[in-house]
Amino acid sequence: MSRTKEVGRVLTATSSRRLPDLTVVRILLVDDDPQAAALIDIALADAPFERVIEVATTLSRGIARVDDDAHDIYLIDQQLPDGTGIELIRRARAGATSKPFILLTGYGSGDIDREASLAGAADYVEKHMVAAQLERSIRYALRNWQAGRMLHDREEQLRQAQKMEAIGRLAGGVAHDFNNLLTAIIGYADLITERLDASEQSSPIAREVAEIRRAADRASGLTRQLLAFSRKQFLSPTILNLNDTASGLLQMLPRVIGDHIRTTAQLSDDLARVKADSSQMEQVFLNLVLNARDAMPMGGQLTIRTANVDVDDDILAAESLSIPPGRYAMLSIGDTGTGMDSATRDRAFEPFFTTKPKGKGTGFGLATVYGIIDQSGGAIYLDTALGRGTTVRIYLPATEAAVEPRKPELPAATADRGTETLLVVEDNDSVRGLAVKALRRRGYTVFEAGSGEEAIDWALSSGIKVHLLVTDVVMPGLSGPHLAARLSKLNPALRVLYVSGYTDDASALHGTSPGDVPFLQKPFTPSMLAQRIRSILDSPE
Predict the structure, then answer these.
(1) What angle, rounded to 10 degrees, do the helices at 526-538 and 429-441 form?
(2) What's the half-sphere exposure (Cβ side, CA atoms, 13 Å) at 409?
(3) What is the C-alpha to C-alpha distance for residues 234 and 18, in angstroms, rounded to an integer?
(4) Residue 499: enclosing H or E segment and its boundaries?
(5) What percent of the chain has pLDDT over 90?
(6) What is the mean pLDDT of the chain?
(7) pLDDT bucket at 177, cuts 50 / 70 / 90
(8) Each residue of 405-424: pLDDT tens digit?
(9) Rounded CA gap, 479 and 485, in Å?
């Protein structure tokens, strides 16, 4: 069966990323012969696909329709009133089209074959052989294009993943090093404040130190966002329902987005549970809602939806998701705002990239969301176009696990002073110096070492048994966990506090998570360090 359309009746264009559905093939025939369409239809009478044939009678009209990208394959006559078929193919290939071309010619030759191939034709068929060869040529050309398109899409996904991974590694490394610097900056600022008596709390020095502290706190917030993007932040995953997250935040939305935006919530009644960090899911929700608000300065519609989705190969391919097929809980947040063009969409998840005016955005909103969802084992898809608004869909793996009981927490410290003996092992001189000075001021006897090997040598030579070891997780040479194991053989009553800047270090804790062992994340303040130590020392054996 076929349906023939004239050039003047425009077919609905689809994206060049659409893989051809071989049950219906949309054909553009460029031929000035009035009988050409009927001859092609007869030649394809037994073809296993339905045909929609459109005819263009000149090279120029053919080029215009090729540029519209409304067809799956192009059949091009070699002799046209205003040029040749090979010329048309060459010009079309110089543009953006990747769809297959088949050259139709009254006679074949080695020269035609060579020229057609060089121009970019998938095949050529002599007109007196169309009945015998054209159907097979179309099928092969489309299958080859389909395979090439799928390979191209996979390569694009790989390039994007590699780009995001490279940016993530850079961001994580910068944040890790910066956390050491911030620990020293924040810590020494606090030590200065601690030395000021009551009469000096409003002095110029106190105000200047407070400004240093505020700036360091802002920098600390940026490093947290960098770690979130690079999937190196610390998460405390629990079993939760995304409906609870959405419902809990819906009440505050009018204050966040304003009365000029209407909100609709469509939450699934039987939404599957997921395993994720509840506070981070709230951060994801708020970031997406704020982005939607900013895209609708004159008002609009905000739609929040949850659903259970069986992610299959079709969804994976259509949305370029890099997750295994299976059952997922989906959260989508859509707006009727300005939308994004393709260039903006391609960079939307990069840190520091923003389309907002200078001083109005950090470029971390979507980057943070991307990192949180990726680190939680999920995926994110951005459905957007200029003038059509934006919908962000988040997929998190569904779980049948029951809600986990909360782990007992260490008792809160009522004081931060003590007289116990401590050993601080840290390869960063500034962080180690800060920790030692802060703890000695609080009454502790503190020894220090710049490496695990140095700490072992000190323990063997001094014979001193410390009450608690404070150690960085990853250091050159002997790691913190291995150092703790060695020292515990010499001193079974030894207690340990690990410190680190991001999760790559925490993974060295013999497969445990930061919540399973006494752990303190950088940057920390002298007070935080002292209180954490006091809590460990005061806790039951």
Answers:
(1) 60
(2) 5
(3) 40
(4) strand 495-500
(5) 35
(6) 81
(7) confident
(8) 545 444 444 568 899 999 99
(9) 10
Q: How far apart are CA 441 and CA 487, in angstroms?
A: 25
Q: Which amino acid is at 116?
A: A
| Residue that wins the pLDDT comparison between 349 and 302 | 302
- Report the sign of the C-alpha dihedral through residues 469, 475, 481, 482, in that order: negative
Q: Which of 164-168, 202-206, 427-431 has the highest mean pLDDT?
A: 427-431
Identify the DSSP state of 307: E
Q: What is the DSSP letter of 468?
A: E
Q: Is the pLDDT of residue 369 over 50?
A: yes
The model carries a pTM of: 0.49
Residues 238, 404 contacting (CB under 8 angstroms): yes
Tokens of 185: 């900056």
Characterise 339 by phi-psi region: left (phi > 0), alpha (psi -120 to 50), beta (else).
left
Amino acid type, 386:
L
Cα separation of 257 and 260, whole Å?
A: 8
Using DSSP, state whether 261 is helix, strand or coil. Answer: strand
Measured in whole angstroms, how far is the alpha carbon of residue 497 from the centre of its chain?
32
Burial of 162 (0-12, 13-18, 19+ CB in 10 A): exposed
Beta strands in 86-154 (DSSP E): 101-105, 123-126
Q: How far is CA 169 from CA 163, 226, 519, in A?
A: 10, 10, 23
Q: Is 82 within 8 Å of 50 (Cβ atoms)? A: no
∠ at Cα 325 (319, 326), nearest 5°? Answer: 120
> What is the rounded CA–CA span in Å between residue 223 and residue 192?
24
